[in-house]
Design goal:
It contains four helices and 13 strands. The protein is an alpha/beta fold. The relative contact order is 0.24.
């Protein structure tokens, strides 16, 4: 998804360490000290998505909270599209014919369309960002689907993009490609869009299977702060084929094994 030059696809293995890295990691560790896969074989766990053809019928979208920062409908969202279990109720739809991604937050099917707190449309062939200050279906103003751990990639043995993760608290700023903040005035908190990398020195020899593929990607592409939530929770797509015993190895990776990398200035818009 997105051009090879897109930030999500950027190899940050040799990127410089952010001067605030130590403070950020310590702050995240204050609420949780270990990595956690926020997905697994339970069909109600993780964030689902659906791929539709280019002729998928458009339906009306009514925004209930952040309409001024949302891309107006209609969207090509089937009335039976899967909805994330839980309060976030994300709905993610890829229009494969037109290479666009449609994402909604707090979405509920109603009548011949959908209600959603917010919605965003991304051209998967473009590097264009949302306007500074705008949210998306994620608090950081980022797309969700490009940052999910997806089963097909892991089964193939390679993830070639950054991953999405959450932290308990963020500061009131963002780093592009994020465009929105939902934080507090604490400079030791990471901003939305901050990118973290598994340290090159972290030994991967004890790991195997799905966990090894994920950790290898975290060394080369890292993960991006996309929302407030449970700290060190890495997001994945809903799929009953996940091997939970493999994924559980991630729970032994300490937050101290990560470092923030410098990818741009903090914006305050």
């Amino acid at each position: 998804m997105f051009p090879s030059s897109n930030a999500w696809n950027q190899d940050i293995f040799t990127a410089p360490v952010d001067p605030n890295s130590t403070a950020y990691v310590a702050r995240i560790d204050s609420s949780r000290q270990f990595l956690h896969p926020d997905f697994g074989s339970d069909p109600s766990y993780g964030i689902p998505y659906i791929v539709v053809p280019g002729n998928q019928p458009m339906v009306p979208i009514t925004f209930t909270a952040y309409g001024s920062e949302s891309d107006p409908g209609p969207y090509p969202v089937p009335l039976n599209a899967p909805v994330e279990v839980g309060s976030d109720a994300h709905v993610l739809v890829v229009d494969s014919g037109n290479c666009h991604l449609y994402e909604m937050y707090s979405a509920h099917q109603r009548g011949n369309g959908w209600d959603a707190a917010s919605g965003a449309v991304f051209n998967l062939g473009s590097n264009a960002l949302r306007p500074d200050g705008w949210t998306s279906a994620d608090a950081a103003g980022l797309p969700i689907l490009p940052g999910l751990v997806r089963y097909d990639e892991v089964a193939a043995g390679v993830i070639s993009h950054a991953l999405r993760f959450t932290v308990n608290e963020t500061q009131n700023g963002f780093i592009h490609p994020a465009t929105h903040q939902a934080g507090v005035a604490n400079a030791t908190d990471p901003p939305m869009g901050a990118r973290f990398r598994l340290k090159a020195s972290f030994d991967l020899t004890p790991f195997q299977g799905e966990a090894l593929v994920i950790l290898t990607a975290l060394k080369r592409y890292g993960m991006i702060v996309a929302d407030n939530g449970s700290s060190w929770f890495v997001s994945g797509a809903t799929d009953s084929r996940w091997l939970d015993n493999d994924l559980n190895q991630l729970k032994g990776v300490p937050g101290s094994a990560f470092e923030a990398v410098a990818t741009g200035p903090i914006q305050r818009g």
